[in-house]
Amino acid sequence: MGKNKRIQKTSKKNKVHKLTKPAGVAKPQPKTQAQGKDIAKKPHFQPSQSKPIIPFSKNDKILLVGEGDLSFSRSLIFTHSNENVTATVLESSEDELISKYPIASENVAAIEEGRGVVKYAIDAGSMNRKKLGLGKGDTGWDRIIFNFPHVGGKSKDVNRQVRYNQELLVSFFKSALPLLSPTPGSSILVTLFEGEPYTLWNIRDLGRHSGLEVMRSFRFQAAAYPGYRHARTLGVVKGKNGEVGKGWKGEDRVARTYEFVRKGEGIVQGKGKRKEESGESEESGVEDDVDKSWDDAVDGLNQELGDMESNSNSEDEYEEDEDD
Prior knowledge:
Layout: H1 2-13, E1 33-34, E2 37-38, H2 47-50, E3 61-65, H3 71-78, E4 84-88, H4 94-100, H5 104-113, E5 117-119, H6 129-132, E6 143-147, H7 158-176, E7 187-193, H8 203-208, E8 212-220, E9 255-262, H9 272-277, H10 286-310
Parallel strand pairs: 3-4, 3-6, 4-5, 6-7
Antiparallel strand pairs: 1-2, 7-9, 8-9
Helix pairs in contact: 3-5
């Protein structure tokens, strides 16, 4: 009996030492489960959440398509100091536009005051140089932006809605491509909400079949455009009692911008898709991949060593995880 007690005491002293990483390499927060218990999470902030990506400079010549109430165009001029903005809407006149979006009256005045241009009756799928007022010496736009394209309607037939919106995007890509400046890197930007049914549109493939390729994608952050309000295709959204501005707010939803360039002008992304799904820009360096490989290897070994050590412990080492 005395011998057994000595063996038990000795085994408690022999602790398993976990592997550590080289100096300067930060250990990621654990995300897996151990011993049937959830590991406590700590807040983690992606770079795109703290510093929005603004995909244009103030000197870029910008064409905005399907602008709704024109609040985004106004923000580009007065917040981001863009000097050459042409905003287009599908509505045939300013009166028709204001009937759908009353705030558009103020936005039109502000855009024109800031030396921007507003064009009416512009269909995203049938744009051309003449309709947009391009002269013979004009080379085109550095950035063509279409935020939240949608054909409109409240059809519950998902397949039909997906097909119609795909047709809209293909026609847009084909009409926008000839309007791009010949300068390498000139781009077409489309912003969509994340999740279904928008992921079913397969926007990457649509662009590829239209002579384009995705250079990068990144989180769209409405807060980077003060004054911007998401405008639905059907018009102003009202609350249950008819209050304007009390209903559904698209700017609060998670959205992603896809930046397309002509085929051959894109950047090879490697394993960037995994970054995209986590909310970061697709662009990632080799160091990120190396760090992740090291993290995965060390965490895997530490998990096994932790399981071995926990067999001799009577108390749980981990706190229960709480859902946000």
